Amino acid sequence: MGGNIFLAQLLSGLTSAMTLFLVASGLTLIFGVVNVFNFAHGSFYLLGAYFAYQAVAVSGVGFWEGVILATLGAGVSGAVMEYVFLRRIYGRPGEAGFQILLTYSFILILDDVVKMIWGTDYKSISKPEALAGPLYFGEMIVPKYDIVVIGVGLLVAVGMWWMIKRTKFGRNLRAISSNREMAASLGVNVPLALSLVFGLATALGGLSGALSAPVRTVTPGAGIEVIIGSLIVVVIGGLGNFWGALVGALIIGEVTAFGILYLPQWAILFSYAVMALVLIFRPEGLLTKRSAAR
Amino acid sequence: MRSWRSAKAIRLGEAAQWGAGLLLFGTVPLLGKSYFVTMANEILVMGLFAMAFNLLYGVTGMLSFGQAAYYGVGGYAVGLLLSEGIVPFSVALPAAMVAGGILALVLGPLCIRLTGVYFTMLTLAFAEMVWAVVFKWYDFTGGDNGIQGIPVPDVLRNPLRYYYFTLAVVFVCFWILRKIVESPFGATLQAIRENQERVGFLGVNVRRYQLAAMILSGAFAGLAGGLFAGYQRSIHPDMLHWTKSGEVILMSILGGVSSFFGPLVGAAVILFIEDMIGKYTEFWEICIGSIMLAIVIFFPRGVIGTLGARLEGMRGNKGAGNEATRS
Amino acid sequence: MQEIPRGWKWSLAVVLVLAMGMAEAATAAEKIVIGALYPMTGRAGRYGIDSVSGAEIAADEINAKGGVNGRMIDLIFNDSKANPAYSVKVAKRFITDDKVNFLMGVVSSAVGLAVTEVSKENKVIFVGTDHASTKLTTEKFQPYYFRVSNNTYQSAAAAALYAKDKKDWKKYYVLGPDYEYGHRTWEDFWMLLQRTRKDVQLAGQAWPKLFEPDYTPYITAILNAKPDVLVTTFWGGDTVAFIKQALPYKLFDKMKFFNYDAGGNYEVLEAMPNTLPKGLVLSSRHHLNWPDTKENRDFVNKYKAKTGRFPSYAAEGAYAGVYFIAEAVRQAGTAEDADKLVSVMEKMKIKLPEDPEGFTSYMRPIDHQIVQVQAIGETVPNNQYPPATMMLGNFKVYKAEDIIPTEEEIVNTRKEAAK
User: How much is the pTM?
Assistant: First the structure.
């Protein structure tokens, strides 16, 4: 196969990777700071898609305005979930078990809420005209929309990095993830920070859902499919490690893209195979320091 | 003011509880509705699975989100061995237990290298991989269709007979699990739950105990899976899906992880609720999700735990009342 | 003297209550109870909900005309959750507690395979209305099972006849969900096509997971392989996601898109108003706009009136299921004698909304699979069924007898499986 196919797969792998990263970024952020694996993350992804649908297709708002509204909506919903429900189980004996049940219960509840409000039809929103078409690189086509998604993914990565490394809020988050009690005794408003970061993470989930709405199927049940994919990405990169999510997403995206060329019968096993290798040889994830998890 | 009870009385009390449990389950068929037998059979199977899970979680403090892998492997062991006619049921069922144990022996060491939530995520990840293999291996496992029409020996074909068989097997397993928990081995496991580090300082090889707990848990989960395969006479990759792992977590927490029979009670409650709600509405997800949410928020000690606490409270108050009236 | 009137009133009350009770019992015994399992949650939820509506329309119509020989149809629904173990439990409960005369449903073939075992053991007739695995009528056939919607073989056979005539369709690429349905639907087609066209070749294949959200790397691989035809065996949301993602790559200008079992379902057409490309070659198990007969138009309009939207194909399947049962009970004169019903059902002919003029669907005794006409079309602009802006048109119709396996083939398949 010529260089063209190589480049084409590289690029499509990159697109896949960036969408994966966008979805997984929120998940890993919550885990890193709040130490909660939010199984309902896919549901906020779905909420973002439905909010975007409601704003753009039903209320006639502009596409980007709709995306922003959806992101905010998902973020607020997440912050509310944390404030009203999740907060009650912090520090409980056996907290981890309750976390699983609580987030899982939200998957069920949100799935039905979405179904009751919008029904089971497949919802669609159109891409903005300017972004609907292809970009030509010689014979190769790259959809304009994909480039935008890659761009947003990079923006999110850089933005998150900047927030965590350079802002006071980010410093507080790092302190909280290191030692919650000490951060509180040093004057950090821990409860507020936790709600904010949770909302931020679900906002990222909602953003990825809203951006996916024009190119995927918006239907009840579509939230679950992103959770295992995100889990794989996040586990490979290292739970809680933001750059790890990016690295994990890139690996999965490219391995799948090239695997399809050479071993198309086994497409569904690629991500599991990579995950297996990482888990056997470096269970804490590729970017997490060894000591953190043992 | 509690009444003084001798060790003998305590043991008698316990025996009475076991007897009551056996009686309760034993007389279900006499109620006349065959559907109750179906339900009770499932409760016993899931109850065993949940108790096996709780050996890891409630007793040893290891939250595994991948026990469905062992349950499923046990089920597939029975399903495949019987469908191919390789061995009779009397061999296939113990084989299911062995299969569960062996898988735990393989995956266990890989998982227990990490602790806490990392351990949980690893168990989930490995269980997903086992699921993917079973799902994809169409020629061997029947893939996404599963296998139906598993031939169970004629003597057990009758649902009533199979129910009593399950009852016997499951209660024997309960008894064994009880002995394990009460033994010095069990005490070590509980100590590990309380403070892993300190136990290590005492010279105990913590990892080895954790692995042993995983193997035992996996073995009993496999047995539960095998019993299910014999009862349902069909198997499907759903048995290994992460939602199944979630079900036993839910059942154990609902019933109460600190009490021995908690998971069994939890299994009964969940299966009843699922059944009731499913009958009446298509919106069962929001109903069950809300119930789960309520349990998490309001019943942190589970049904048995909360009931137990209430009873303690009542007994204590009564005693105080007596004291006050006495001059 | 006051006791006698009081006693009189009490006795009357008791007698009335007894009479009502007996009347209740009497009418209960006279109902024809159908226990239906359909997915009402998750990705297949649309089909389950539409099936429920379709079945209810049929039952209401029949009951409005006085039922079947005076007996009313009573439908009980339960979510199958696309979960075989749960569905088996519910099916058993239907039989022992609700005393259903018939089982009906499901959408997932895995559930169908599990429920058919329950049907076999309890000798309760199971009328399949949507799942398409041929296994249920070949390897796993049991006499109490009947299917009133077409299976993957029929769609594939029609597709093979369609493709046979397309002389410029030489290089094929197949993309489908990696599970039995996805593979089988393709394999049946490819096997049949190769019998009549020796010049076709497979340029490539790929099998993403079911409900895969991101097809981008698959699309670039397909474009690189430059096939004449892309066959996909997706259903529902996967079809929609793939088309949406492939559009900017101008994939549909470079090759024909052929999805011959579920690609042309209405929920796919309705999901992409204004953006669905022209010229996609698709079929469905029930078309809203073909055949253009009064029965089909009436069915679609009734459905729209009842639910406010147009039906996906699953609705007509469930509608057919209820009518099939009703007609069988009418002819057999019983809803309880399963063996008598089986002998009636095996040979039944029943006119369905999807039957074109001059054809009546009929059941085949050897495999209890309904024999029907298939029509394959391409997407063309059509505003009659909003929100869809394209429907299928330019239909090529395939005779029912041309698209079923021969009796010999069925016997051989069963022999192979029994080994």
Answer: 0.91
